Amino acid sequence: MLEGTFQDEHGEHPAGSSFRNPPGTSHIPASEDGCTIFVRLWQFRAGDQAQIVRQPGEGDEANPRKGATSASVLFDDGHERVCLKEWAAGETVTVGNERGLEFLVLSGELTVGGEKLEAQSWGRLPAGMELTATAGPQGARIWIKDAPLLHPDVLQMPT
Q: What domains sit in the chain, N to C, each tagged with a CATH number?
């Protein structure tokens, strides 16, 4: 959830909430006043049915890497790991990448390869290409998914 409030059968979810709804699971989405969401399709492996709803601040605390002020794990099943990270203002952070990385700037800004990425900027890096980014003057809050960009046994969307 990027902006606004989202409702479903689990309740109300403000900006900062996170959802994981594999194909075949169901939910009843709505937004009384409107909202902006980031949706990532075609990401689930065959047999992956873990449906997760996280409110802001939920998740398992993780040790932040050098240059980061906090890190929390939203989901980790050994095949993929999804985290929220806060990077300190002006710090350059490098994230290794053995499987593939996707990232979304939630707030603040990052500079990656000379390009300034502001809130709601999204990036993908193939396996083997590290993410090296410098947080802007207000720092940055980012969502990072460490997993193959396309699982070899990707779960097909129901028709």
A: 1-56 (no CATH), 60-146 (2.60.120.10)
For 109-158, write each residue's pLDDT tens digit.
Answer: 999 999 999 999 999 999 999 999 999 999 999 999 999 988 777 776 66
What residues have CB less than 8 Å from 73, skipping those under 6 apart?
Answer: 59, 60, 61, 62, 81, 82, 83
**pLDDT for the residue 45:** 83
Which residues are bridge partners to 116 per DSSP? 111
Quickly tell me which residue has 């059968």 as its tokens. Answer: 9
Nearest to 122 by CA among 132, 135, 130, 112: 112
Q: Is 6 exposed, middle or buried (0-12, 13-18, 19+ CB in 10 A)?
A: buried
Model pTM above 0.85: yes
CB atoms inside a 10 Å sphere around CB 7: 15
| Cα(155)–Cα(7) distance, integer angstroms | 26
Cα–Cα distance measured from residue 122 to residue 53, given in angstroms and rounded to the nearest whole number: 21
